[in-house]
């Protein structure tokens, strides 16, 4: 290792107890996204609860235990803002954690341009290499934007992070940071691979029927995207590409089956491009030092203009419910917050504008709540439900009963197409509601 870098590292190395003393009452503290969010720093900061007031912590999916939120249920000392909520975040929603809406590709822009300045930024990273660089591991989402704008930058080193190659903006140099903390090397947050059920597999089969050699794939989270990945791995498809927000285990399945080589991609040929990864330990081992993958910031992977440059793009995402106008809710149940817009709208718009591109929003036709079955396709969204994808953006909706086209369809065509893929037990009721809302024609099917 270069002696100069080694000396600079030693000068900037502090204990975590020293690092948290940099936080003052009223400060904004930003943790990096997903598995690069802080563990040790947050734990140590929680122990300063009685000394601090109104410390505001921002994060995009806090992957580790929220020590500060747990230490202060009142939110008087520590209050969280979440760009996207999942896992541990959900426990604190409406108590001492609040959602910050975003289109995910705009996150670095908001960090650089519009948001309240960050006083302290904390990023979990790999150990420094011989050139003085730390790797962001499995999340390049907005780390560089954080570093550029924060008054103080602290790195929390974790030897368990995979080293994820670029791409670009996947590293930070020792000269760009203020302090380094050698962490406890906590195990990474893992997500079990979701096993698809029979409905997931049926939905996936409709999508698979529209796929062809050379498609470039983006998969969201959930049973259907995972089912698509497993079915592709067992199919005759070939020469597939990857351009996605989140790298998941389904891509590993497809890669090991020889389905992905990126040879037909119109940009970033031969590379599987992603911004963050969350999944099993097997997946983290697969992406470690893998030259076939490229880690990039979210304002590249999720920019609809970039996605649109990729021919034959396939975008597959999930939803909670939708209405007969074609509006999609994927982030709440009424006013009960679940997740966030994330990158869904980015890919819905980008994939549709791709030459040969297709955008799919998938959901089972029904949901069972306390023993009663409800239709997920509704006349109107549940009051208070958040519109993730406006009706003007949605392309194709998929349930276990087929695919409904939205683009280019007027209101009565949308209603008819959606009712055709609703559960049969609810179709007559939906027709009556469509008539009441003046979006049903006499010439429509009865």
Describe this structure in words.
This protein has an eight-stranded parallel beta sheet, sandwiched between helices. A hairpin with a 4-residue loop joins strand 18 (321-323) and strand 19 (328-329). With 446 residues, it is α/β, with parallel strands linked by helices. The radius of gyration is 23 Å and the shape is globular. Helix 5 packs parallel to helix 6 and helix 7 packs across helix 8.
Question: Secondary-structure map with pairings?
Answer:
Blueprint: H1 3-12, E1 13-14, H2 16-20, E2 28-31, H3 40-46, E3 55-60, H4 67-71, E4 78-84, E5 97-99, H5 107-113, E6 120-125, E7 133-135, H6 143-149, E8 152-157, E9 171-173, E10 179-182, H7 198-208, E11 216-219, H8 223-233, E12 241-243, E13 246-247, H9 249-256, E14 272-274, E15 276-277, H10 281-287, E16 293-295, H11 298-301, H12 304-307, E17 313-318, E18 321-323, E19 328-329, E20 332-333, E21 336-337, H13 344-353, E22 358-362, E23 366-369, E24 372-375, E25 377-378, E26 396-399, E27 402-405, H14 411-420, H15 424-436
Parallel strand pairs: 1-10, 2-3, 2-6, 3-4, 4-5, 6-8, 8-10, 11-12, 11-17, 12-14, 13-15, 14-16, 17-22, 18-25, 22-26
Antiparallel strand pairs: 7-9, 18-19, 20-21, 23-24, 26-27
Binding site for CoA: 220-224, 320, 343
Keywords: Cytoplasm, Fatty acid metabolism, Lipid metabolism, Transferase
Domain Acetyl-CoA hydrolase/transferase C-terminal: 279-434
Choose one word for the global shape. Answer: globular
Determine the mean pLDDT. Answer: 95
The third-level CATH topology of the largest domain is Glutaconate Coenzyme A-transferase
Total discrete domains:
2
Domain Acetyl-CoA hydrolase/transferase N-terminal: 6-187
Keywords: Cytoplasm, Fatty acid metabolism, Lipid metabolism, Transferase
InterPro entries: AcetylCoA_hyd_C, AcetylCoA_hyd_C_sf, ActCoA_hydro, ActCoA_hydro_N, Butryl-CoA_acetate_CoA_Tfrase, NagB/RpiA_transferase-like
EC number: 2.8.3.-
